[in-house]
Each structure stands twice: as structure tokens, then as C-alpha cells.
Amino acid sequence: MFKRVLLKLSGEFLANENGFGINPDTTAQLARLIIGALDGTDVELAVVIGGGNLWRGARNGQGMDPATADYIGMLGTVMNAMALQDAMETAGRPTRVMTAIQMHAVAEPYIRRRAMRHLEKGRVVILGGGNGAPFFTTDTTATLRALEIGAEAVFYAKNMVDGVYDSDPRKNPDARKLDQLTHLEVVERRLEVMDATALTLCMDKNLPLVVFDIFQEDNLRRLFKGERVGTLIQS
Ligand code: UDP
Fold it and tell me: Domain 161-235 belongs to what topology?
């Protein structure tokens, strides 16, 4: 059984079928899934949410100052964090949103020790605003915050892909799922798991990663209990 973990969610998990925007029903379903898996365990959960359903700096901000485009992306992640908070609290779990860019009217600022105190009290801590710095993605936020708050692992949630494969399973029907890898193998084999900066940080600090399909029956609950699901990446 894990004591403290960090769950990385893509912004697209909150979106409509076209991958865009925030759909309250989709968000409510996701929140129920996470809270349902958490209930009855003592796992302390921090969540980092992305913003790709609203804005991706490099893609949507073409022609803009790249730093400005990234700041817009970070604000998008705060919108997602608030939507997820609303849905998780409706599902019956106390939460706190903490943001890397301060906006006191909507959420608490991210303060490491305060985040850890919320976790100890059983609140789900939802981290918005990425790292608060441009030229990063929320994959790096997940790694960074997991290390800061002493999470034992990052659970890297995917949709429709139940782990890491030796080639893209959507393109190659013979693609083989890999149950366990080292960080170095992921780098050397150029397997597309997460942002390279985030992966390197995980490798340097020896932080385990689990890549799994969050929408597959009971996967998250099993993971919380310490069962093997998806692909485990550790040194
Ligand atoms: N972003 C950023 N710094 C960060 C985290 C995010 O500048 O520390 C911006 C960046 O523009 C990124 C966008 O926010 O494209 C949305 O985050 P991400 O692409 O990681 O979202 P996801 O793909 O997980 O939904």
C-alpha cells in the first residue's frame, strides 16, 4: 500500500469528445473514479492537472511571444484544477487547490509544507499553474512536486493505453507491452512516455513512475493498494 502518491492527469481527461474545453459530466465521472478508488484507503493524494484541453503554448500560441503563450497555458491548468476540485468535492472528498502562480481570490498559493499538511489531513491537493514558469510542461510539474512532497511514485495516467509499448500500439498491431523498465531504458530506446526534462529528473532522483490506463476498471484502486498495473519505470 502506498502512503503518498502524485497522480498526473492530462487536461484532455476533462474535455468533450473533440478533446477541447471542460465538460462537467466528463469531469464528474473522472472525479468519481478517483475518489472511489481512494475511499477506504489511507493513501494521501496530490494531483497535477495539465491544460492541453484549453491551450498548449507551443501549439496554440504560434506567432506569439513563446513565454506569453506558456503563461496562458498555465492559467488554463488553474481552470482545470478548479473544475476538478468542484467535481471531487461533489463526490464527497475535501480538496485544496494550490497554484504556482498566486491568485488569492480563487486558490491558495503553493507552499510545500502547507501542501504536505493538507495531505496529512486527508485532503486531495490539486496543483494548478504548472511550475509557474514557461518552457515547461505539467509532466515536469508532476515530477518536481512529487519529489518536493515526498511522494513515493508518480502515477502517470493515460487514456486507452495501458502502459508503455515497444512501438506505438495505435500504429503497429504487433507492438508489445513492457511491464517494467528502467528510466535509462526509456531514454535509450526513445520510448515516448513523458516529456524528456521530466523523465531525466525522475531518473536523477530515482523516482518511480507508473504509466497506466486510468479508465480501465479498477486500475487506480489496485495501484493505490500496491498491485502491479500498467508499466513500472524505476532505476
Ligand atoms: N505550462 C508551462 N509551464 C509549466 C506547465 C505548463 O508553461 O510548468 C504551459 C505550457 O504552455 C503547456 C500548457 O501550460 O503547453 C498546458 O500544460 P500541458 O501541455 O502539460 O498539459 P497536458 O498535456 O498535460 O494536458
Answer: Carbamate kinase (3.40.1160)
CB 51 less than 6 A from any atom of ligand 1: yes
In this prediction the pTM is 0.97
3-state secondary structure of 200: helix
pLDDT in tens, 57-92: 989 999 999 999 999 999 999 999 999 999 999 999
* pLDDT score recorded for residue 18: 93
Q: Is residue 10 annotated as involved in ligand binding?
A: yes
Q: Across 114-159, where does the E strand assignment appear?
A: 124-128, 153-158
Q: Does residue 127's CB lie within 6 angstroms of at least one atom of ligand 1?
A: no
Ligand 1, atom 15, lies closest to the CA of 56
Residue 52 is predicted with a pLDDT of 97
Q: Does the C-beta of 26 come closer than 6 Å to ligand 1?
A: no
Q: Are both 1-152 and 161-235 of the same fold?
A: yes
| Residue with cell string 474535455 | 15
Residue 2: other Cβ atoms inside 10 A: 18
Domain parsing of the chain, residue ranges = 1-152, 161-235
| pLDDT at residue 90, rounded to an integer | 98
Predicted confidence (pLDDT) at residue 1 exceeds the cutoff of 90: no
- Which CATH number, 3.40.109.10, 3.40.1160.10, 3.40.440.10, 3.30.70.20, labels domain 1-152? 3.40.1160.10
DSSP 153-190: EEEEEESS--SEESS-TTT-TT--EESEE-HHHHHHTT
The answer, yes or no, to whether residue 217 has pLDDT greater than 90, is no
Confidence of residue 98 (pLDDT cuts 50, 70, 90): very high
